[in-house]
Specification:
This protein is α+β, with helices and mostly antiparallel strands and 177 residues long. It is built from four helices and eight strands. The protein has one domain: Alpha-Beta Complex (Cyclic Phosphodiesterase, Chain: A), CATH 3.90.1140. It is 31% helix and 36% strand. A hairpin with a 2-residue loop joins strand 7 and strand 8 (164-172).
Amino acid sequence: MRYVIVCLIKGEALEYHEKLVSDICKRFNVKRQRLPAHFTIKAPFESDDIQEIEKITEEFCHNNRPTSIVISNFGFFRESVIFMDIKASKECIAVNKHYIDLLKTVSGLEWKRNEGGNKVFHCTLVTKLFPDKFHSIWNYVSNFECNFKTEFDNISILKWDKDRWVNFKEYTFKDRL
């Protein structure tokens, strides 16, 4: 089975993301990504048994509190991905790193160079763009503002099901901020 581990974005930031993504996809005739609003913790991976990951995640969420993040402005990678920029608090970065360190103890779980500690926290709007579409969409998105205070308050394991990602299991942090 194919899985990805993310923090699902919720509340007003989710509503804003969904409306903006729908608008962009319709206006510029681009495909919607197959993931809900999120930031990635562990990129997609294959596994026949994720019981160890589930146990680590459940215990980790039980022992940690939500940390703050601010979603503001927009950014891009290369000329193919446009995203909402996430400013992670020092606490968020530390909690994320600690969880990744625990996941790295799982035998057989492979990691890419760009995964782990020095990642750019972001919430993708559109991806797999060609340069001509990228510039038009970037110019359009640059007219908008976003500023949301929210939390890294969950770790969700999504599972690939036919042609989209579905929520396999969501773990929430023990205490609220």
